[in-house]
Every structure is written in C-alpha cells, then in structure tokens.
Amino acid sequence: MTDLCLGTNELDIVFPFHIVIDRAMRIVRTGTALRRLLPDIAENEFLDRVFSIELPAVTVEFYDVRAHCRHLFKLHSRDLDKLTLKGQMLYLTQGDVIVFLGSPWTASNADMIALGLTLKDFAIHDSVPDFLLQMYSLKHSLGDALKLTERLATVNRGLEHRVAERTVEVVAANEALQETNRRLEREITERKIAEESVRQLAHFDPLTGLANRTLLRDRLNHALAAHRRDRRRLALMFIDLDRFKPINDTYGHHIGDALLEAVATRLLEVVRESDTVARLGGDEFVVVLPEVNGSEDAGKVVEKIASGLAKPYLIDTCQLETTPSIGISLYPEDGDDGDTLIRNADSAMYAAKSCGRNQFRFFVRA
After folding, report:
1. Rounded CA gap, 28 and 307, in Å?
2. Distance from the Cα of residue 136 to its chain's centroid
3. Portions of the chain given CATH number 3.30.70.270
4. What's the whole-model pTM score?
5. 92 burial level (CB within 10 Å; 0-12, 13-18, 19+)
6. Which residues contact 251 (CB under 8 A, 6 or more apart)?
7. Which of 75, 93, 97, 76 is nearest to 84 (CA)?
8. How far apart (Å, rounded) are the C-alpha atoms in residues 255 and 31?
9. Each residue of 252-304: pLDDT tens digit?
10. How far apart are CA 286 and CA 223, in angstroms?
11. If you count Cβ atoms within 10 Å of the first and of the last residue's Cβ in the chain, which end, N or C, has fewer?
C-alpha cells in the first residue's frame, strides 16, 4: 500500500479517538470523538494528571504506555524507515521491527521525510486511548466513590452526633422516669402507711393494739349472725381491773399505760385465736368466746383469765398487783344483739365488784 501522511481532517476521520502528546507528555489535542466523550480534558494537561490512577492493577500498564511514548521521542538520533497506514492500523517501523503504533499530528511531506529528526508531537493510536479511557473512567468513578465515601462519612458523623444527643436525652428521660417511679413508690408506701394508720386508729386501740369498740361491734355482729344460722352459743366477758386508779395516780400514767399493755398481753396468751379481745377504754376489756357449750365452758375460761391477770406485774422497777372483776353474758339467753350482751355483762361485772372484787358473775335477770 502507498505510504500515506495524514492531515488533520484525515486523522480525525481515520482515528477519531486519537490523542496527540508532546515530548513533555502534555496533551496537544484530541480527536473529535474523544473530545465529545471527554469534554473536560483540557489542552496542555499532563497525561499523568488526566489518566494516572494509583491502583497496582493499572499503574504498571499505564507507565508502559508512557515509557513507549518517551522512547519514541528519543529516536530522533535514528533514521525511522517510514510511517505507513495499512488498513486501520498505522505503523511506525524501523527496519522489520515495529517501533510503535500510532498516528501523526499535522505535518508536511518534508517534515515526514525528516521524521526522525523533526518529530515534536505524537498521536497515540486508537487502541491506546481505549485503555486510557478505561483508566479515565475508573479514576472518575473512584473520585465519585471517594466523594460518596466522604459524604457518607459526614452523614455518619452527623448520625453519630444525633444518636449521641438522643442517647443523652434518653438517659436523662430514663433518669427522670426512674426518679418519678421512686417518688411514686414513696408516695404509694406513704399512702399505704397512712391508710394502715387510719385503719389502726379506726379499728384498734392505739395503746394495747387490741380491737377497739368499733371493731368489737363488727366482729360481734358477724359472730351473732353466724350463730343465729347454726343455733350455736356465745359468751361475752366484761373485765374491769381492781384498784387500777390508785396505781395510776400513785405511779403515774406511764406506769398505768404499761400495766394496761401487760394485761392485754396476758389476755391474748390465755384465749384462743378464734376469740376476740378488745379494750373499751380505761381499764375495761371485753373478751368474746364464739365457741362455748354453756356456762360451764365459759366458767373454765374465766378462771384461767382471772388466774393469769392476778399474778404480780413487774413494770420498770415497780412490782404491781391487780385483780380482775369479770361479768359474763351468754347468747342467746342474755341477749340477741351485741349491745345487749355488752350491757348485761357490764351489769354482771358490777355485781362481782360489789361482792368484794377479784370475782366473776354470770348475768342474772332481776
């Protein structure tokens, strides 16, 4: 084939993706197709800056391309045989050896004849731009990836900051909730204590802890209701301590109160769990025996109570003695309701006192 020298227009037609570089490895011009594909490649940019990328898989190959370009420009001291276009390939040869594959930039025939001495610019063949194009695309993709990574890192930092803020808020909210719960627990505990205190005051004697008059009536009414259904008998004892007032006046109220507490303890020790022991006030106590067969059973319990209460009491350093006067009423003989039974037992108690104290009497109708 006849040797050809390509002009500028012919070069763009035959090799539309060509790149022309000079000895300093600057890009002199690019083919029309490559300019459309990569419009941001500026003239006089170094080849390395446009295409080089620091990845082991591609840098070696890129450096080989750059080395071949530089090697060609060093051939000015040698005679290059010819620059020949064969089919779609342009060969730059020296003898039988292909020195490099490429296409010339604009040059006159005279310049081409003296190619080995006057070559100042060189155009890389289309097969080489394909490789450079891949690296260009990879470089920009990596650049985009780096920008995306930086954006993601910024977003992550912002997210971590927001998470940290929300964590602080959650911790503060949890602490506030825990404090609220503790406060509620304290309030509930205080309310329960207050309710228990009210219940105690409403139903129990504050000094001895025994049932008071209100609780006594409630338990007595329930017991009587059950006994009416089952036709069982019940005994009620009204107890008054003999000579309690002189002890209280002589030793003081604190000794008198301690004596009342000791009496309450002894009463609870003598009676059964099913029995009710109450303090009506002062030195007056009531014992309800819901399970008795008659006056004989009631008399045995009374004797145990009288014997237990008559033993001396050691209060602080004082040895005190007091005896009980006890009146007894029975259901249903002596009354059908609680108030009647209490009133009749009280009457029997006064009868016992009139007989010399430390006595017990059953209620007898006049």
Report:
1. 132
2. 52
3. 213-362
4. 0.52
5. buried
6. 315, 318, 320
7. 93
8. 123
9. 999 999 999 999 999 999 998 889 999 999 999 999 999 888 788 888 899 99
10. 15
11. C
Is residue 319 scored above 70 in pLDDT? Answer: yes
Pair 335, 341: CB distance under 8 Å: yes
> Residues spanned by CATH 3.30.450 within the chain?
8-139
Nearest Cα to Cα of residue 40 among 27, 59, 54 = 27
Phi (first) and psi of residue 357, to 5 degrees = 65, 175
Q: Which CATH number fits domain 8-139: 2.60.40, 1.25.10, 3.30.450, 1.10.10?
A: 3.30.450
List the strands of the sheet with 19-22, edge to edge.
27-30, 19-22, 121-124, 97-103, 89-94, 82-86
How open is the CA angle 304-307-309, to the nearest 5 degrees?
105
Residue 252 phi, psi (nearest 5): 105, 160
| Long-range contacts from 85-89, C-beta under 8 angstroms, 24+ separation | 85/1, 85/3, 85/4, 85/6, 85/14, 86/1, 88/14, 89/125
Q: Could you give the residue numbers annotated as active site? A: 283
Interval 82-112: pLDDT, tens = 444 433 334 444 444 444 444 443 334 444 4
Diameter over CA atoms, the chain: 165
The more confident residue out of 49 and 110 is: 49
> Average pLDDT, whole number, for the chain?
77
Confidence band of 208 (pLDDT split at 50, 70, 90)? very high
The CATH code that applies to domain 213-362 is 3.30.70.270
Tokens of 117: 């001495």
